[in-house]
User: Fold this.
Amino acid sequence: MATSQKSPPSSQNEAPNESSEMDDAYAAFLNQANQDAGGGVQSQSQTRSQSQSTFATTKAVDTDVPAALQQLPRTFYTSDTDEPFEAVSLRWSKKKLPDEDEFQALISHSGGQQQQQQQQQQEVSISVSIMDAKAFDPKGHYGAVLDAVAKAAADGGGGRHNRRVYRVGHGGTRVEYYVVALDGTHSRLVGVKARAVES
Assistant:
């Protein structure tokens, strides 16, 4: 009498379940890895944004900007960030260019209580030093910019000889360069400024 033998359960029936579990685990692993990578990118972006926002707020214009500066083609100061030059026109009634302390007071905002509180929250203090125009532009890349500043001052009775470069440190590698000249006729300093990150 022939007896029927039960064959052992086929492994083919179990393979789909094992494969499915492995696929699910691998998919979960990939999802986690992508989330971590995405978080890293976001963190770098936030760091970059925070780095840019740690510049203290400085003043550049509080009176009319001379035509010579308005007509200056868009020019960038070369550093780690390549920022454009912006026009500067600040009221200044003295007959000579400001020293470091005077210039720091001139470009610091002294607005209302809310503005002062915002500045305190920034916790960024600036330091000002004076540098020679040749040290600012040793390779002659910014001749058109320097000429525009001289022309703006000459239109107001000043000129190339009363031009000065102020280096404004914002802590770490962040600086601003103000290139200004005295326009005695209109009681103002005229020129340009640019931000830079110098690693």
Summary: The two ends are 92 Å apart (CA to CA). The CA atoms of residues 137 and 143 lie 8 Å apart. The chain has a mean pLDDT of 77. The first strand starts at residue 76 and ends at 77.
